[in-house]
Amino acid sequence: MEAIKTITVLSVCSDKPIREQQYDKLSKIASRYVGTIYQFLDESIIIIFGLPTAYENDHERAIEAAGELRFNFPSFRMGISTGDTLIRSDVILDYKQMELATEAFNLACTAKPGQIFISPHLYSLVENIFRCKLHQQPTGHSCYEIIGISEQLKEQLKSKSSWRRGYSQERTTSTKKRQGSRKRQSSKAKFHRAFKKWRSKSFKYIYYFLITIASIASVLAILIWGC
């Protein structure tokens, strides 16, 4: 089975071998943005967005993932490329996918620590979303560096893409509902605990009262019979 899909490839490079703890955190970040780690070498990682399921905002999430990786790992160098490719069920990557991965890797190698370089094609898709800076590579080809979100969308999106904003709002609403439910359950539990405590004390006081009455009655009976 074959199908043409648009995928986005994020290449992450490090000057030193990536440690296990770094990989674990990187993997969690990739998963949070619906990315799949395809290849992991000592000093580089390839993350693919759009496989097995492609979404129209894969390229945005790839850039956002790179931004979070840069925040957590300032020494990492990253490159991102996107394009259409033929997906076959019998192979993981075809030539076009390898070409995209190679382009992303070359961009990452050109970048300095903390920089995110994207291909010209990807720039044409996100130029109204992210602020970019033009760079000329030693080979003569041009690329763009992600330096932030566009001023036009900063107020509207509050430094988040529409996907992240919607996801955040949905998660916030769900969290508020859970918190409200927990508060109601907590109030009921407190009432039941207070009621049980009051009932236990009441039984205790009644028991002592009856013992006292019985003792007084016994004393009176002895006095009466003694007289």
Question: Helices and strands, in N-to-C order?
Answer: EHEEHEHEHEEHH
Structural class: alpha+beta
Report strand order across the widest sheet: 2-3-1-4-5-7-6
Low-pLDDT segments, ≥5 res: 159-163
Q: What's the level 1 CATH class of the domain at 2-159?
A: Alpha Beta
Backbone shape: rod-shaped
Strand content: 15-25%
- Stated plainly, the CATH topology of the domain at 2-159 is called Alpha-Beta Plaits
CATH architecture of the domain at 2-159: 2-Layer Sandwich
Our count of helices gives: 6
The total count of strands amounts to: 7
Going by CATH, what is the homologous superfamily of the domain at 2-159?
A: Nucleotide cyclase, GGDEF domain
Residue share in helices?
A: 40-55%
Q: Overall mean pLDDT score?
A: 78
Distance between the termini: 111 Å
Rg to the nearest angstrom? 33 Å
User: Can you summarize the main beta sheet?
Assistant: 7 strands, mixed
Identify the notable features of this structure and list them briefly.
227 residues; alpha+beta; Alpha-Beta Plaits; 7-stranded mixed β-sheet; 6 helices; 7 strands
Structural description of this entry:
With 227 residues, the protein is α+β, with helices and mostly antiparallel strands. The protein has a domain at 2-159: Nucleotide cyclase, GGDEF domain (Alpha-Beta Plaits), CATH 3.30.70. The chain has 6 helices and 7 strands, in the order E-H-E-E-H-E-H-E-H-E-E-H-H. The chain has a 7-stranded mixed β-sheet. Strand 4 (77-88), helix 3 (95-110) and strand 5 (116-118) form a beta-alpha-beta unit. The protein is rod-shaped and about 125 Å long. The model is unreliable at 159-163 (pLDDT under 50).
